[in-house]
Amino acid sequence: MSTQRVRFLEQSERKAFDTKHRKTINHNISRYEDAVSNGVLQFASLENAKERASNIKHKVIEHLDEYLIEFESNLKHMGGRVVWALNKKDAVREILKILKEHDVNMVVKSKSVTTEELELNEMLSRNGIEPVETDLGEYIVQVAGEKPYHILTPAMHKSKEDVAALFHDKFGIPADSTPEQITLFVREKLREKFLQAGAGMTGANFLIADTGAVAVTENEGNALMSMAFPKLHIVVAGIEKIIPSLSDLHLFWPLLSSHGSGQNITVYNTLLTGPRKEKETDGPDEMIVVLIDNGRTDLLKQTPHRRALSCIHCGACLNVCPVYKNIGGHAYDATYTGPIGSVINPYLHDFSQYIHLSFASSLCGRCTATCPVKINLHELLLFNRYESVRRGQLHPGEKVIMKGWKYIMLKRYRMDFFRATTKNRALAYFFGQAWGQRRILPIIRKKSFRQLWTENG
Questions:
Q1: Which CATH number among 3.40.50.10420, 2.40.50.140, 3.50.50.60, 3.40.190.150 corresponds to the domain 43-294?
Q2: 315-338 tens-digit pLDDT
C-alpha cells in the first residue's frame, strides 16, 4: 500500500468523524450550492452555454501547441515576456532567478493554485524572499501555517470563531473580533506590504491567444494591487489556461463566476496586456508570464483523460461531491482535490502514489452534471481505475479473487453448488476487509430468485 494511500485513509477516518469539521464544511458548502443554483439562472440555456464552452476547450486541447505559440507571439508584441518551465524544479529555478536579478526580497501574491502546485511560498522563504498572500482566505491559511483547503475558498474549513481565535493568538486582536473587524485589520496590514514589495505575483484564469492578454478574476481587488504597485509582475500559469479569443470571455467569465461563487459576474475582471505603456500611470515596468507544464503534457498524451485539461478551476465539482463533503480538502494531500484532483493527480505526480484517489468515489455523477465545461469526470475516474489494472497496480490477491469470482459467476450451476451459509462466509472472508468496518455486507439468502420463482410461479 502506497504511503499516500495510508495517509489518505488515516486523514479521511479522522475528518469524517470530526463533527465540528463536518458542521463547518457542510454549512459553508451549502451556502455555495444555494448561490450557484441562483447564479446559473442568468443563462437562457445553460446546457447550450456549457456545450459551447466544452467545444472551445476541446479545440484548444487538440491544438494546444499552436495556441501557446500564438499567445507568446502576441504577448511579446505588447512588451511582455514568456518563460517556459517543463517541471516544478525548472519553474521554481526560473522564478528565483528573475527575483534575484531584480533584488526582490518581498513578493505580494494574489490567490494562485498553480503557485501552490509549485510549493512556491516554501521555496521563496528558503531563499530569503518573503511571500505575502493578499487574498483574505489565502492569508488566513498562511498565518495558520496550513495548505489551502478548497480550490476556490482556501479557508472554507474555518469558522469565523476559528479565524478570530487564530488572529488573537498571532496578532493579539480581540478574540471576539467580527469578520468585518478582521478584514479591516488585514487590509491595513497588507497595504504596507503592497508599497514595500519588489514584485507582484498572480495566477491567470485565462490566457488569451489572439491578443496575448492575461485574464484575472477576483472578488477582493488584491490581484489588481499586486500587479499595479510593484515594478515587476510575474504571472504563473499552467499551459492549459489558454482560450482562443478575447470574444470567448463573454462565455467563460459568467460560467466561472456562476459555478464558482453563484455570482452573475465576479467583482473584478482584469485584462493584462503587458507592462505599463508610455503615459500610463499604473502598472509594472516589466511583465513576465511563466508557463508551467509539470505533467500536463503527460496528461495530454492520455486520449480519454486529456479532457480534464479543460477545467476552468471553478470548484463546482468539489462542492457537490459526497466524498469531499465528508473528508474535506486536506485529506487528499495534493493541490488539486475533489473529483478533478482524483482524475489528474496520478498523471501530475507519481501514478502509483495517487491512483487510490480514483477509487475514493461514489461514482454518483454529480461532478459531471455540474461541470461548466462538461468534463465527464466520473467516467474518467473509471478510466483511471482501468489504467491502474493495466499498469499492474492491483494487489496480487485481488487478481486471484476476481478471477475466482468471474469463474463462478459465468455458470449458474457453479453459483448454486454451495449452500448460502458457505457463500456468506466466503464473502466475509474475501471481501469483508475491503467492504469496510462500517458497512454491512449483503446477505445471500437460502433460496435464489430462480428457486423462489419456480416455487411461487
A1: 3.40.50.10420
A2: 999 999 999 999 999 999 999 999
